Amino acid sequence: MFKSICAGFNVTPSVCYDELIPGGSGRISAKMVVWIILGAILINVILIYCYRRYSQRELKEEMHLQISSMMSQYFALTDTNKERETQISVKP
């Protein structure tokens, strides 16, 4: 496709010369393809690692909030039960 675009010009731009195209003939070499694939894999691994750290942090925060809420409810219930026991024991 690149060659077709370059062939459409009356005066060939400097970008179209074979020396600037990887592989020399307008094709990407096998080595370049391997590096591109390895780079894409590396980027995906880094993104997955960052996402897992983020989701674990969010999960821990959510669990902490839920535990705090449950503990508050438990202490409120315990205080209510103590007040009832106190009221019952005070009445003759």
Give a short overview.
With 92 residues, the protein is mostly helical.
Helix content: over 70%
The structure class reads mainly alpha
Q: Point out poorly predicted stretches.
A: none
The total of beta strands comes to: 0
Question: What percent strand?
Answer: under 5%
Helices and strands, in order, run as HH
- Overall tally of structural domains: 1
**Which geometry do the CA atoms define?**
rod-shaped
Count of alpha/pi helices: 2
User: How does the major sheet shape up?
Assistant: none
Please, what is the oligomeric state? Answer: single chain
Structure in words:
The chain is mostly helical. The protein has one domain (2-90). It has 2 helices and no strands. The protein starts with a helix and ends with a helix.
Pick out its properties.
mainly alpha, 2 helices, 73% helix, 92 residues
Give the arrangement of secondary structure elements.
Layout: H1 2-7, H2 30-90
